Amino acid sequence: MSTTRQAPDYGRPEASMQSASPFRRRATIPGLAAHRGTVLCGLALLAAVTCRPAVAQDDPGPDLAAQPMRPPTVIWCSVPSGDALYVSGVTRLSSGSFMAARAYSGRFGRTVNARYGLHLNLEGNYCRQSGNRATAATARAAQIGRMAARNLAIVSVGVF
């Protein structure tokens, strides 16, 4: 004897009769599946036409790629704040680019903020560049001399 099991109907009206609700009825429109396919293909085509391919933003354009890299530079940073001048040592950067100098300046600002409790703007330009170490050391010494003449304390930031 074979027994077939029926799923319980849980009191649903669909189990015994057609629903009178207009939301549960499916209208069968001829070609509806083809219409959905056309709409989906149209949306895919629209997305393909309007979307640009991903391109790395840091890549230089063809005209910039031919330009040589800037030579290494010597840099030092300082910021007067209150009754002190915070100054770094003279150091050499491997690239003389604007971005490398600004990154070093931001690092100087973060270090001074962390060590001495100041609130420097991290996007500020606190560094000066020079072509060689002698010129940078002379300019740094001149600024330290001017600030010492104003009775400002000279604070060496040290390694950062």
Task: Give the topology, please.
Blueprint: H1 32-50, H2 62-65, E1 73-81, E2 84-87, E3 91-93, H3 98-116, E4 127-130, H4 133-149, E5 153-156
Parallel strand pairs: 2-5
Antiparallel strand pairs: 1-2, 1-3, 1-4
Describe the structure in your own words:
With 160 residues, this protein is an alpha+beta fold. Helices cover 37% and strands 15% of the residues. The protein contains 4 helices and 5 strands. Strands 1, 2, 3, 4 and 5 form a 5-stranded mixed beta sheet that branches. A hairpin with a 2-residue loop joins strand 1 and strand 2.
Keywords summarizing the entry:
alpha+beta, five-stranded mixed beta sheet, 15% strand
Structure described in brief:
With 160 residues, the chain is an alpha+beta fold. The protein has helices spanning 32-50, 62-65, 98-116, 133-149, and strands at residues 73-81, 84-87, 91-93, 127-130, 153-156.
Would you report the number of β strands? 5
In angstroms, what separates the terminal alpha carbons? Answer: 88 Å
Q: Radius of gyration, rounded?
A: 36 Å
Strand content: 15-25%
Classify the secondary structure makeup into a structural class. Answer: alpha+beta
Portion in helices: 25-40%
- Backbone shape: elongated
